[in-house]
Design goal:
The chain contains 13 helices and 18 strands. By secondary structure, it is α/β, with parallel strands linked by helices. It has two domains: about 110 residues, Urease, subunit C, domain 1 (Roll), CATH 2.30.40; about 300 residues, Metal-dependent hydrolases (TIM Barrel), CATH 3.20.20.140. Bound molecules: zinc ion.
Amino acid sequence: MKKYFTLIITLLFSLHLSAQKTIAVKCGNILDVRTGKLLSNQIIFINGNKIESITDATSFPKKADTVIDLSAYYVLPGLIDCHTHVLLQGDITSEDYDVQLLKESIPYRTIRATKSCKQALMNGFTTIRDLGTEGAGYADVDLKKAIANEVIPGPRMFVSTLAINTTGHYPVSEKDYAWELKMPKGLKEITGADEGRKAVREQIAYGADWIKIYADRGYQKLPNGDYRSIPNFTKEEIEAIADETIKSRRKLAAHAVTPDGIIYSINAGAKSIEHGFGMNEECMQLMVQKNVFWCPTIYVNDFVAEGRAKAGSPMNKFFAQTEPEVFKKAMKYGVKIAYGTDIGGYDWTEPQTKDFEFFIQYGMKPLQAIQTATINGAELLGETGLMGELVSGAFADIIAVKENPLNNIKILGNVKWVMKNGLVWKNEK
Ligand SMILES: [Zn+2]
């Protein structure tokens, strides 16, 4: 009896396997993002949602259910943006921000976010780490679920839900409104280590993959050129948050702009520093030593600088002036850089690939720039081998462009074809 049972199971299993759709993608050129080598006339064989094999077209032995012809294209892995806000639609000024939190319901903001998710995928980003819903509760968990269930188009999402700051240090700001009003907040405010732990536990319970903190505020440029800020958390608070995050097998991302916040966050256990515009050499050494990634978010800073300066806050302009030097130094020290745009902090109708151009302008080779949004992003997310490169066993997340991006990085802003999880989502061939 047991023998027959095993036989039936084996048959069912093989039927299931044969029921998986197979796709052969004929590629004119594949960019190996690890080596920078261009492999011409290749076939990517896809079974279900994974890449089964990549072979030379001349030695292709298998039949597939579907054949896709990308022989006139340059093919590379789907891109990874490690810093997005799908629930935000640009916030140059505090008014832009407040309007979204005070005049738009969370359902309305979520509907708008479905458009942002689609936009990210159409831009060629098949994976994003979304770093905070900015007052929209746990709606990022719902968006992630809707995408995973193919209810709406969008990238794979790693979500961080509310994000955490300390009491009184995040908009909507009490000082702009009548004090007797209870204003909604763009994140979870805590005071004390226990509240920090509770916030982390709650966010993980509701589906957070990452925990995001805002580590510093009140940025200043000193006459000697150094940047300073006020660390938001007490040592006990930040350590409690990091401890609870790490022991729950999650990772901590820290918005930290100057050495005060950056060093504090790294020593607590943060795995990525967001923005970091004012970092110094001590920060860079520590980042290398502790294997901490930097998401530089350059375009957003330049995008908001003028508007914020007009509104009386010139810091983004100062950061824009010093960022080429900071970036070059970080590269010299060997700081690992993951592509992160902060899109949503600038409008979703703006390009998501502008940071590539800045990276190259500041001294990166085109391949290194592409690696920030592929293998580096995958490493930061703990997904090496599953995304960010075209290898057997990886998710079938693939994009195609008309020119070699190593010769023309701007072509990444014009992705013609997108496959995610073995399904074609954009086809403008
Ligand atoms: Zn952000």
